[in-house]
Amino acid sequence: MNTARRTLIKGAAALGALSAASTVAIAQPFLFSPTTELMPKGKKRRVVVLGGGWGGLSTARHLRDTAPELEVVLLEKNPLFWSCPLSNKWLVDVVDTAFLVHSYPAAAKRFGYTYVQTEITDIDRDKKRVHTAQGYVDYDWLVVSAGIRVSYEPWFGNDRQAIAYTNTHYSSAYVPSAEHLSLKQKIQAFKGGTIVMTLPPPPHRCPPSPYERACLMANHFQKHKIPAKIVILDPKPRIAPIGGGYRLAFDDLYDDIITHVPNAGVRELDPYNKVIKTAAGDFKFDDAIFMGHHQAADLVWKLGAVGKTADGKPTNWAAVHPEFYNMKDDPQVFVIGDSVGAVSPQFGHYPKSGHVANRMGHSVAGYIAQQSKGQPLTPRIIDNLCFMLVNTEPLEAISVKFEYKMGLEGHLVQTLTDDNDRRQALWQEDLLWYGTKIADMVGS
Ligand SMILES: Cc1cc2nc3c(=O)[nH]c(=O)nc-3n(C[C@H](O)[C@H](O)[C@H](O)COP(=O)(O)OP(=O)(O)OC[C@H]3O[C@@H](n4cnc5c(N)ncnc54)[C@H](O)[C@@H]3O)c2cc1C
Question: Do the domain assignments include residue 338?
């Protein structure tokens, strides 16, 4: 059996587990019921972390060091940690499944917190209580790092059938789920024709990653002599970030495969007859990857943390303190990671990246420790770093770095530096970056 096939099968098993219910859990009562107390509180005050992704894992892990006096409970619906960072490389077999998948129980045991695999269904802030499919859990501090939800409503309104059809046939694999496996199977089975890929309007999860995906798919089609065209329908006027590096990669390496169409916001989609109408023209397609609009995760809406515009409409993202990430009316409830809304009039949102979510989790572990000890909070400035692979023979990446400081006007200021010069050294740095982050979050 060849490596690609082996990887695909290992991926199938891991991702099958992601979509199936599993009994992996720690500290659960014998009988589960949404109305039972899942974990009665002991003497220690408790931090409950919702979501075991890049932000949640980092929070839980660092709390054990910063606040050993507190009990830490991580609630997560998936039985395995699945990393979206590096998943584009996995789609075309540059890395294998073992790179992306890690064990929650092993991480919890290693760092000394409790992981419970369960679907979180609601949050009652008055009672300081989280409801799950298996019972409720009370908290003293709450950290919500639940990622994003992908919304197709702006295209289809309430047409549930079109939404379900689009989700099933053209899903984007932008959240940790079995969608990654269907996308991998789609790419590997593709025999030729036109694939369109829509980008969500900003802000969205990991802005440079859709272009990376296009490069790696083009590279795969080239290598396997598949007569494919990839049309990137981008609502933005230009490629960003790392626009120069991507432009060079598209022109030098994939000129006959990739077409980037700017200002191509989606106006109408007929998923059944495979036609998409955009502000830059109409396109027919043989297959597609449709990235719907990104919004804060459902749990943030249930928490009541979604901000409002001046005219009272939802901003679709959490309104939190720009440096401490707590809800404005509750210093002990934090929202971190991709769900966070605009934090600065200069740059709007922090980049929605694993790096940022991880740094926020680390910071919040420090803030909770300070609150627990009755100390004033010391702001911790974060940064961001992303490497994007654009070629596989040789393995060459480009990168973007974001730095922040508190400006004289009293709001955060961002400096963004693109590294457009694709080279192997950046791929090596990517692997090093990823290994360090994974060790920080799961310890392996
Ligand atoms: C293709 C791709 C490539 C990327 N590449 C990079 C990269 O190279 N570098 C980088 O820094 N970032 C990258 N990212 C972005 C990164 O994945 C996200 O920014 C990061 O995962 C955000 O962390 P989070 O904790 O906010 O959300 P997530 O990591 O998505 O974690 C949210 C968790 O909450 C859980 N959850 C949600 N709702 C519930 C519920 N009701 N009950 C129980 N559990 C729930 C989910 O299962 C999930 O595990 C990439 C993303 C994609 C899609």
Answer: yes
In the β-sheet with 135-138, what is the strand arrangement from edge to edge?
120-124, 129-132, 135-138
> What b/e readout covers 330-347, taking b as 16+ CB neighbours within 10 angstroms?
eebbbbbbbbbbebbeeb
Q: Which sign, positive or negative, has the C-alpha torsion 125, 130, 136, 140?
A: negative
**Which residue's C-alpha comes closest to atom 27 of ligand 1?**
147
User: How does pLDDT run across 369-425, given as a tens digit for each residue?
Assistant: 999 999 999 999 999 999 999 999 999 999 999 999 999 999 999 999 999 999 999
Span from the CA of 357 to the centroid of ligand 1 (angstroms): 8
pLDDT digits (tens, 9 = 90+) for 241-263: 999 999 999 999 999 999 999 99
Q: How far is the CA of 69 from the centre of ligand 1 (A)?
A: 28
- Ligand 1 centroid to Cα of residue 18, in Å, is 14
Do 257 and 141 share a domain, yes or no?
A: no
85 in contact with ligand 1, CB cutoff 6 A: yes
- CATH number of 33's domain: 3.50.50.60
Q: Look up the pTM and report it.
A: 0.94
- The pick from 183, 206, 383 for probing ligand 1's pocket by mutation, whose C-beta has the most ligand atoms within 8 angstroms, reads 206
